[in-house]
Design a protein that fits this description.
This is Reverse transcriptase. Keywords: Nucleotidyltransferase, RNA-directed DNA polymerase, Transferase. The chain has 425 residues and is mostly helical. Helix content is 53%, strand content 8%. Strands 7-8-9 form a three-stranded antiparallel β-sheet, with no helix packed on it. Strand 8 and strand 9 form a beta hairpin. The longest helix has 30 residues. 24% of the residues are buried. The chain binds zinc ion. Zinc ion (ZN) binds next to loops. The site of zinc ion has 7 residues, from loops.
Length: 425
Amino acid sequence: MGLRVAPQKTEAIFFHDGRRGKPPVAHVRVDDTPVQLGTSMKYLGLRLDGRWSYRDHVDRLVPKLDGMAAALTRLLPNLGGPGDRVRKLYANTVNSVALYGAPAWADEAVATRHIRDAFRRVQRRVAIRVVRGYRTVSHIAASVLAGLPPMELVARAHKRMYEQIKELRGLGVLVTKGTQGAVRLQARRQLAEEWREYLTSIPPTASGTRVVGAVGPVLEEWMDRPRGIKMSFHLTRVLSGHGCFGEYLCKIGKESTKHCHHCEEEDTAQHTLEHCPAWADERRVLTNTIGEDLSLPTVVRQMVGSEDNWKAVSSFCSNIMRQEEAERERERRGRRGRHALTPESRRERRSYLGALARKRSSPRRKTKVGSNPAPRRKTEGKPGPTIVKGDAPLETPDILRDRGRMGGEGYRRVKIGGSRRRIPP
Ligand SMILES: [Zn+2]
């Protein structure tokens, strides 16, 4: 045959079905060089093992996919960041790496729980990035909201496409781009069907069933929704139930009670959407557009029905969630004390103090410690106070009487370091 091999680079593997236990001990020699018999080997980018299980392949692939998912976490923040199309594009880059050689291992992935679970862990992180969800959102809910079918089902769809095109070529049919498109469309429809079947098999006690019950019946429309409409993170919160709701906050230990802050009911995402009297005005605007029925399956059906409906629901969710979050933040601050700061004022204070520190540490401003320069102003003939600059310890406060500007008889303006205070008489 003329085939030349490098004996020292040669690997060997024993393929077996595992029914008769471990394979026998064997010794392979190529040109008097002993070749080690391994349990797996890399061939054309796939890691093969003796039982064709592809577990080893997936175990080595998952850390790589995890790294990609972690990179997406930094690239796709919940607030701001790229739009839905770009997010889906990023998600598909992870899929394209994961699905390398899918026709070879698709059936094993569908049949093996270990492989399915490994892929789901990665897909959950990616799907959460796509929909701007909390990291506590389950794989089922996140993947349904993101429109990303389970990886093993996508792998099987790839296998079907590959086999159909191979069969057509075997029959002598010229496979054009149009033919490939038709095969792809058919595979996609079958994939949606299989995904829906998988979703109906999920037990009702599993997390994420609320989303599945709502989106499942309109899965294809949800996946193929127009490009202009997007998932905002407030919309994701209302749909997934993971957000500023008593039930969720109580579950994660952030609040002690599930009760709504506006009424006596249990505070859930559905309560906020459908019942809570606090949002009656906002709800009226919504029902004028999408109708009176605010059960989640109907709302989702209306959303995929028209762009205006989608925007009305999204705007309602953003509106009420912003108000609710602001109110809870105020309550939290109230509990922490009157002087607790909002994140914004904390940021402002940090930047102010940073600027002050830079200003004070600049060499031009520094003065000798212990020096006693002349005061800036003198008041009523009294000796002027000491103004301390730079990082020198405070010696004497700069007390200035400034009745006209500081509002009120007898008020003193005290200068301590860089800040000024009003001291009542
Ligand atoms: Zn309420």
